Amino acid sequence: DAGITQSPRHKVTETGTPVTLRCHQTENHRYMYWYRQDPGHGLRLIHYSYGVKDTDKGEVSDGYSVSRSKTEDFLLTLESATSSQTSVYFCAITEGTGLNTEAFFGQGTRLTVV
Amino acid sequence: AQSVTQLDSQVPVFEEAPVELRCNYSSSVSVYLFWYVQYPNQGLQLLLKYLSGSTLVKGINGFEAEFNKSQTSFHLRKPSVHISDTAEYFCAVSPMDSSYKLIFGSGTRLLVRP
Question: Are B99 and A50 a contacting pair at CB < 8 A?
Answer without folding.
Answer: yes
